[in-house]
Amino acid sequence: MKMSLKNYRKELRDSLLDLAWVQWSALGVAGHVTRFSSYVVDVEALVLFTIFIGRYDERLFDSMQDWLQTNGRFVNTQRLKVLAKKNGFRYQRELAYVAANQNAFENKSKWKNIADSVKITSGDSVEPLFKDIPLLGKQLKDPLALKFGLERNIYKYAGKNAKFDDGLASLMLRLRGLFGVNSRVEIMLLLLSNDFCKIQDLAKRSGYSWRSVQDILFEMTFGDIVQATASKKNRVYSLPNKSDWLKTFGFQDDEPIRFPQWDKALFSLELIYETLENPLLDKLSNLSVQGAVNECFKKIGTSFLESSIRELQTVSSNSWLEIPEMMSRIFKK
C-alpha cells in the first residue's frame, strides 16, 4: 500500500508547530495548554526555528514577534547569528524582517545589524511570507515586510504576553536576568546540567569561541563561582556549590537540569520537512521517497544523537515516519 506522503507531511508539520507553540507558551506566549517542563528552552534556536515553521502559522509567527517586543532584551543576537551561520539557516529575509520590526520597537543596534545584513533590489521578486496565503493584491500590505521582498498583512503588536513561567523551560532567561545577556549564562547552564566540563565542550555547546569561553571561565574561577582542576592538561571545570544554585532557582538537588543542543535537533527537523515538502515526491514511489530521505540523513549525520534530546536521539532514515509520535512524548512529560 502506497504511503500517503501528503497526510504524513501534514502530521509532521503539525507536530513541528506544536513543538514551537509549547516552548513559546512556557516563555509566556498565550495559546497552548500543554506545559513544557522537560528541557531548558534555547531561545535563539527557538527564534530561528519559528521563523521557519511560523511561515505555516501566522498566529505563531506574530506571537513570537509580540514576545520579542516585550522580552527582546533577553535575546542574544550575537549568538543568534552564530547559530544561524553554524547551521546554514536559509531564511535570511524573514530573519531580517523580524529584526527590523524589533529595531523599530526597541531601536537598538543589536537588531539593526541583522536587519541591515539583507539588501533587496528592485529586481528581486516579492514572495508571500506565509505559506498557503496568496499574494494580497490590492489589500494593505506591511511596508516593512515589503522592504525585504516579503508580502503580508500589516503586523500589529497584540500585547498579550504573560510572564514566562518559573520552571525548567525558562531557566536560560532567568539566568540572563541574573548574569546579563552573555556567555556566562550558557556556561552556567552546561555546568548545572553536567558534573564537569572541558573548555572545548563548553565552546562547542554554547556557540561561543574557545577564547571567549576561556576568558569567562578564568573570571568565574577567580570569583569562586567555578572551580577548576589544578592540572592544565585536560583541565575540567565544575560548580562547587551546585546544590545552592539549584535551590536558588527552585530546583531540588536530585532534579536534573537538561539543556540539550536544540539547534542540532531543530535544524535537522527543518531539513527533513524541507525535503518532504518537494511536490515532486508526491508522484514518486515509496522507494524513491525513501531515497530522498536517505540523502537528507546523510546531511543530518549524528545530529539527533548529539542533541541529547532523549525522545529524538533514535531518529534515523529508518524511523523518520515515527517522528510525530517521538515528538509527542516530549509534551507528555
Give structural attributes.
mainly alpha; Arc Repressor Mutant, subunit A; 333 residues; globular; two-stranded parallel ribbon; two-stranded antiparallel ribbon; 53% helix
Itemize the secondary structure elements and their pairings.
Blueprint: H1 5-26, H2 43-53, H3 58-71, H4 77-86, H5 92-106, H6 109-115, E1 127-128, H7 143-146, E2 150-151, H8 171-179, H9 183-193, H10 199-206, H11 210-222, E3 227-228, E4 237-238, H12 242-248, H13 262-276, H14 286-300, H15 303-307, H16 323-331
Parallel strand pairs: 1-2
Antiparallel strand pairs: 3-4
Helix pairs in contact: 1-2, 1-16, 2-4, 2-13, 5-6, 8-9, 10-11, 13-14
Mind explaining what this structure looks like?
- This protein has 333 residues and is mainly α.
- It contains 16 helices and four strands.
- The strands form two sheets. Strands 1-2 form a two-stranded parallel sheet. A two-stranded antiparallel ribbon has the order 3-4.
- Helix 8 crosses helix 9.
- The radius of gyration is 21 Å and the shape is globular.
- The two termini are 34 Å apart.
- The mean pLDDT is 90.
